Amino acid sequence: MPLLSRRGTLLSGIAAIALPALPVLAQPADTDWKHYAADAANTRYAPLDQIDATNFSKLEVAWRFKTDNLGPRREFQYEGTPLVVKGRLFCTAGSRRAVVCLDAATGEQRWMYSLDEGVRARNAPRQFSGHGVSYWTDGKEERIFYVTIGYRLVALDARTGQPIPSFGEQGMVDLKQNIEQEMDLDKEPIGLHATPLVARDTVIVGAAFLAGSVPAKKGGIKGYVRGFDARTGRRKWIFHTIPKKGEFGYDTWLKAGEAEQAGNAGMWAEASADLDLGLAYLPIEMPTGDAAGINRAGNTLFSESIVAVDIETGRRKWHYQTVHHGLWDRDIPCAPILCDIPHQGRVIKALAQPSKQAWLYVLDRETGAPVWPIPEVPVPAGDVPGEWYAPTQPMSSAPPAYGVQHVNDDTLIDFTPELHAKAKRLAAHYKTGGPFEPPSLSRADGTWGTLQAPGFTGGTNWPGGCYDPDTHRVFVFTQNVVSVVGIIPGDPRHTENAYVRGIAGISPRPASAMGDADGAPRTDTMEGAMAADGFRPGQATIDGLPLLKPPYGTLSALNLSTGALDWQVAHGDTPDAIKNHPALKGLNIPRTGRPGLLGPLVTKSLVICGEAGMNTTPTNAAGKGGRGAMLRAYDKATGEEKGAVYMAAPQSGSPMTYMLGGRQYIVVAISGGGYSGELVAYRLPA
């Protein structure tokens, strides 16, 4: 029989009977991921479904990009999320915060830009690669913006990686200048690890500082937010996060001169923008210090506030303060999520703000008014001399809290009656209560301080959540951890005559990376003080086990149509230290989840999130992997786990996804547990 071509003609050229044309399958269109969290609304959503519940576990590694050579030393906390535009992947990477452009299909490097800032970078408060880059185009030019370790805003040509000569001075703006404050350009510890927000033709940049729990001085640089022209680098506006005299909010600083002397109050997280409304939404942190506010009496705007400003002018339109006179380090840690939701028969332009206190604050983003009531509830005062205490705090009525907010008998470890009894005896040495139980004096002969939940790192932290426009759900990870906070008067290292004593318990980061308030507990004047039952001040563990009962990490679905918590699951395998603990031998311990700082991704049918922390035992059905972690997928309607794939290290950046050449990719940054930073791209087998 002669061979036929697809069109039904004899290959010899002799006419033949025509055959039906074969169907041409439409190839899915390529998609982009143009913002840190997919879009300016910070939804971290992609309407893709090639990877779904039936095949997620079949994912294979498409390519890897190791970051070891992009700096003088390796990085072990790689927090970036890349962008993808027209088949090119852009991200920061390595300990010098280089910017790289990769082929999004193969991971091949196309170009790299790196700036050696010397002593200026070595003195910076936000080291390593940061969260990534931002993209701008006017339809002709394409630019990549990022903030260097030494606090410079750089504009690069997206095609070549070369600085744009017409932007600022030879492609960069020195962010330590033109900020209405004088500072040493090499020594002042101000910087930023978040991505700048590109909204229309404005680049919005915040500021970050050293940890404020043990402030070295009363004052300090203020974290003003600025907007720059994306074409020229000219400063368009500045927003005073600590108001100047005569400005709105100045009167919330009750004592004369305290607003002028205060520092910090920066925007160290990403911001969001509604381009139609012309508004940017700024998440503002606390002033100095995190747990001692005796030099900032009053509610002190705009600390711990969401501030809506005009994109073009920086003028405030509205604000909402989530914590008054904060003493708990409850900075607003991540960008607000912008979403349009059905509510009482109409569609509301809403803003949903995840928080360290494990509430999702849902506001009308046009006005700042709460969508569901957020009543002001009376809260207890503390016993620190000279401290000012807010009489009430806003507590959201809906959606409900999605993490542990109390330390009491119901939340203490209860694997066995003996462990629970020990936990109660330990807790009796501290003040305990709800989410706004204030820090207390720490005395060797009395109460050792306050047990605080959520802890200083949350709740939810900088990775934030994601939003599904199909079901109007916000998905958010939270960790249930406890902190020990005590104030010791009279310590000479602290000019406010009080300092934060420290934190104990589960921590997602090593103590060496965290500073006084986030590392091992301090004992100082209480060194050697022991209770009769053997507990030590600062302790928040029971026989090496967490003081709180599991789950230690959860993934939650919050329904913005109803205000309900639709589902919640323990996210992450049970840590080996718990699986193998001798006190738990023979017990059936359900999956506990793991604490950490994690951000989820939502697609057409799945919620995707990697684990924090390393496993040292096999973690999937086939027994593969061993030491490493898992990238897990859940049905977004029910929370049922639908699959998991092995990662060589924990998720340390948030996952993103895109379609290219007919294939869907998922890319995630991994690092930690002795494994240096790496981008890993997954796709289905060919």
Account of the 3D structure:
- There is one protein chain.
- With 686 residues, the protein is mainly beta.
- It has 4 helices and 39 strands.
- The strands form 11 sheets. It has a 4-stranded antiparallel β-sheet with strand order 1-39-38-37, with no helix packed on it. Strands 2-3-4-5 form a 4-stranded antiparallel β-sheet, with no helix packed on it.
- Strand 2 (83-85) and strand 3 form a beta hairpin.
- It is globular, with a radius of gyration of 26 Å.
- Residues 1-17 and 491-529 have low confidence and may be disordered.
Task: List its traits.
4 helices, single chain, 686 residues, 4-stranded antiparallel β-sheet, mainly beta
End-to-end span in angstroms?
Answer: 32 Å
Number of E strands: 39
Biggest sheet strand line-up: 1-39-38-37
The number of helical elements comes to 4
Shape from CA axes?
globular
What is the alpha-carbon Rg in Å?
26 Å
- Report mean pLDDT, rounded to a whole number: 89
Task: Tell me roughly what share of residues is in helical segments.
Answer: under 10%
Largest sheet: 4 strands, antiparallel
Q: What is shown here, in short?
A:
By secondary structure, the chain is mostly beta strands. It is built from four helices and 39 strands. A hairpin with a 2-residue loop joins strand 18 and strand 19 (about 345-355).
